[in-house]
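Quick log. Single chain, no ligands specified.
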Amino acid sequence: MLKQLFRKKKLEDVLAVIDKQEHKLEKKLGWFDLTALGIGAIIGTGIFVLTGTAAAGGANHIGAGPALSVSFVITGIACALAALCYAEFASMMPISGSAYTYSYAAFGEVVAWIIGWCLVLEYAIGNIAVAVGWSGYFVDLLRGFDIHLPAWMITDYVTAGHRFAYGTETLIIDTAPKVAGIPIVVNFPAIFINVVVYGLLLIGIKESSRANMMIVVLKLSMVLLFIAVGAAYVKPEFWGHDWNSFAPNGFNGIMTGAALIFFAYIGFDAISTAAEETINPGRDLPRGIIISLAVVTVLYVVVTVVLTGMVDYRTLNVPEPVSFALRSVNADWAAGIISAGAVISITSVLIVFGLGQPRIFYAMSRDGLLPKSLSKVHPKFHTPHVATLITGCFVAFFSGFIDVGQAAELTNIGTLAAFVLVSLGVLVKRYTDPGMHRPFRTPMVHVTAVASALASGYIAYNLPSITWKMFWIWLVVGLTIYFLYGYRKSKLRG
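-> predicted structure:
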């Protein structure tokens, strides 16, 4: 049985699947499309929401202060190491499935299942967190037009319950309509945006890629607008006069900030899930991954430097730190534009995450680990429509009820688990398949892969204990499904 659990897919078998007509996805994407997908996935909730609390600190964590820019560099380096490993695998195996497919070839079936199950946390649960964040900015935007939705329509049940329990806000529960005495509290905007996004993804990847391209252009314009306007209001004294004032909580504060803003980098690996729809994957996948990550890291550092130079970092523990900083210097016109830009930015993240998860299910189904219907391709749109529809229904439903904090933490741990195994997998394949054609090779692989695994593991180690408990429960559920279905139905069995 142990041998069957770790049965591996041969690389030639992985690549041969692409040539089967019934499994084909349409090749439409170039390196520029992939770079836009990466930027669209990465820039969003993290930079617009988490920078404030990471700099100022919160009830349960210390802040990095003006040294948050250093935190972004550290996290960017850690993600760059993982990106180099992803790029080698993506060029070797240009097939849908991302880390799942890579792990199948490197470690075997049960590890691949675990990674595929973890990727549900990154893409599906991640999209729940992003949708809730989108809802918050959308509601703020409506308020700017004097449109006010009832509190019970814009709040998830968990948040409403916490506020009611602690007495901070009882109005939500009191005013909500009730069915059989149970208050109905649902985040309807979060559900709405997911219905729109997954409907778009059902139509076709090129159409969604074009929409994402327009959103990315607008998003970058908003970020550059903030940098240009904010730079005029920078006061160097806000950065501090020495190391102690620049990094008020020392290295611990910097590393805490790095752990918090990890969510801001999630998304670059989603590029590799579109491998089969890429015209020249050996060349364009590594380019798309590395270029998007480099562009985003530079923008993050510059935004953080400007942000912490505009206002005292201790005032930034607010949900909308970028707009808050602009309003603090009376640049209200720019703050309004940035708020609208945040809605647009987060929408593009939803598109890319929504693109990723159905293609993970598609790959797992094609291997027999999930029902065959999940690998069906629509005859007209050439998309995995069944997997997309099921994922969309799941994400849309739970985004109306789940707290953004819980979803974000689970997203982090699922993503980090994938990073660790992909990094180690690259090293393993160098020994087990040294002659395999590699259009892109991870430089100094022995150092890069180990450093990537250690960095991702360290960040995961610093996540809250409750997140780890939920993660282990998630794994138990996933392994139960595997042994009841996937283990018996696997195409490698026998």
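The chain is about 70% helix and 0% strand.
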